[in-house]
Design brief:
about 525 residues; alpha/beta; Alpha-amylase; Glyco_hydro_b; alpha-amylase activity; binds alpha-D-glucopyranose; Oligo-1,6-glucosidase, domain 2; hydrolase; TIM Barrel; 16 helices; 8-stranded parallel beta sheet; O16G_dom_2; 3 domains; Immunoglobulin-like
């Protein structure tokens, strides 16, 4: 595969459409709102946007529970609005990636409404139905990601249906040729309409043990599951999905998998000739320390199959906010890593502002996961984007579906664009530096020796070179420069300060990162 495909060099920005920009003042973001903000994304240096689901949905899982794979939910707009978004994005050189959710539909999808009618319904086999155990309990010990059994009894037809996530999202049966064909046709629909890529939800769940055996270890996690996910047959499904995507030139397929920082598991999902891009979630869960990160980067780089292209991500709509996990200084360092490591960076909307989790009052909780497992709800990281600091934050003139949060309002785009030292300006500059540097875009990566609390690595491509030095310590650290970097002129600090070299070493401030080139 060519090194020159667009998505290898792209900075990808995830938009949670409900929370980006509301153009109708109903308190929920929409497609026309995203169009209004494309200029901002262009200014930031974004090459591609990934939209969390926009399809018709009862919104019990905010769009990940779909009732029509080829429509747009009226709350987000219409197909015309979608075409407009594609056209305006492409005119600005911004690609559009859609989230697709093939593992399950909404329980209100017409397919499921038919399927549950009776055990002989022609669509029965489109979902995963099993008889109760002799004692009337669920067919096996599989658990849902959101806690509790992955099976719910359907009183109407007397069998249990499988739901790997919420009960409102019954799993499709990927062993049915009709299901495969129906989902493939939906993918063709969007690819034909001009989308540049697909992010495939829960790809590791697309095949289940054919005999529905119990997980041997009942306390299994989704990284260790042997039966409920990660079946060898997933490879064939990934291959089919990639074939659909590749029927269109220049498109990309990205897969969501759940291995935590298990490198072997992550790289096992690249598929034939490394055509699927499995998200690398390593940085989401690791301790933010030099030694752990160094070991992870080393292991990930070493495990990548031939032709595989790496990627990194620091946040998404399922994970507490980056700045709440690492604090503001840590987040600045994380930005440096994200934009200088080897691979495609995925940036979650608002992380460029250092947005933090918002405490959601109990009467405003939206995420169904919170009711099933208190503390697991994802509302705090899905709050509206603050564009300015006035009431409504420039997001809506209505009542926002989730609170903006007083602190996040103060971190608005407008405030930060006026402050040279802000998180936003840090991202803006780092993205620009990355775009100008062949080494950062496509070069090799080599880890260099450094003090134990410092991570240092070199990127190189021909004459183009860069070195990243990140100090994870609460104390200053003296770092001796590699010989080759001693004459380099450009020094960029994450702490927006002028730095000059004195001799062959640098004194890095606590949590400071620098980029030398
Ligand atoms: C993925 C999504 C998450 C969604 C779930 C079920 O993990 O990222 O937001 O709720 O799948 O579709």
């Amino acid at each position: 595969m060519s090194t020159d495909v667009w998505w290898k060099k792209a900075v990808v920005y995830q938009i949670y459409p409900r929370s980006f920009q509301d153009s109708t003042n109903d308190g929920v973001g929409d497609l026309a709102g995203i169009v209004q903000r494309l200029d901002y994304l262009k200014w930031l240096g974004i090459d591609a946007i990934w939209l969390s689901p926009i399809y018709p949905s009862p919104m019990q899982d905010f769009g990940y529970d779909i009732t029509d794979y080829t429509g747009v939910d009226p709350r987000f707009g219409s197909l015309q609005d979608f075409d407009q978004l594609i056209a305006r994005s492409h005119a600005l050189g911004i690609r559009v990636i859609l989230d697709v959710v093939p593992n399950h539909t909404s329980s209100e999808h017409p397919w499921f409404l038919s399927s549950r009618q009776s055990q002989t319904n022609p669509k029965r086999n489109w979902y995963v139905w099993r008889d109760p155990k002799a004692d009337g309990g669920p067919p096996n010990n599989w658990r849902s990601v959101t806690g509790g059994s992955a099976w719910s009894l359907d009183e109407l037809s007397g069998q249990y249906y499988l739901h790997s996530f919420l009960p409102c999202g019954p799993d499709l049966n990927w062993r049915s040729a009709d299901v495969r064909a129906a989902v493939a046709s939906a993918l063709h629909f969007w690819l034909g309409r001009g989308v540049d890529g697909l992010r495939i939800d829960m790809v590791d769940f697309l095949a289940k043990d054919a005999r529905f055996r119990d997980e041997a270890d009942a306390s299994y996690t989704f990284a260790t599951a042997q039966r409920h996910l990660n079946q060898p047959e997933v490879a064939q499904t990934i291959e089919e999905i990639c074939q659909v995507v590749e029927a269109y030139p220049d498109r990309v397929a990205i897969g969501e998998i759940n291995p935590g920082s298990n490198v072997a598991r992550t790289v096992s999902y690249y598929g034939k000739e490394s055509r699927l891009q499995p998200f690398n979630f390593g940085l989401l869960g690791l301790p933010f320390e030099a030694a752990a990160l160094k070991a992870y980067i080393q292991a990930y780089e070493a495990a990548l199959p031939a032709e595989a292209w790496p990627n990194y991500t620091l946040g998404n709509h399922d994970t507490p906010r980056l700045a709440s996990r690492l604090g503001q200084p840590g987040s600045r360092l994380a930005a440096l890593l994200l934009l200088t490591l080897r691979g495609t960076p995925y940036l979650y909307y608002g992380d460029e502002l250092g947005l933090e989790n918002v405490v959601i009052p109990s009467d405003q909780i939206q995420d169904a996961w919170e009711a099933r497992q208190p503390g697991k709800g994802r509302d705090p990281c899905r709050t509206p984007m603050p564009w300015h600091s006035e009431s409504g934050a420039g997001f809506t003139q209505g009542e926002a579906w989730l609170p903006v949060g007083a602190q996040n309002r103060q971190r608005s785009v407008e405030c930060q664009q006026q402050d040279e030292a802000s998180m936003l300006m840090l991202y803006h500059r780092l993205i620009a530096l990355r775009k100008r540097s062949p080494a950062l875009l496509s070069g090799s990566l080599q880890l260099l020796n450094a003090p134990s609390e410092v991570l240092m690595y070199e990127r190189a491509l021909g004459d183009s070179q860069a070195i990243t030095i990140a100090n994870f310590s609460k104390a200053s650290q003296k770092v001796v420069l590699p010989d080759k970097a001693r004459g380099w002129q450009s020094i960029f600090s994450t702490q927006a300060r002028e730095l000059s070299k004195s001799g062959d070493s640098f004194e890095l401030l606590p949590h400071e990162g620098i980029l030398l080139s």
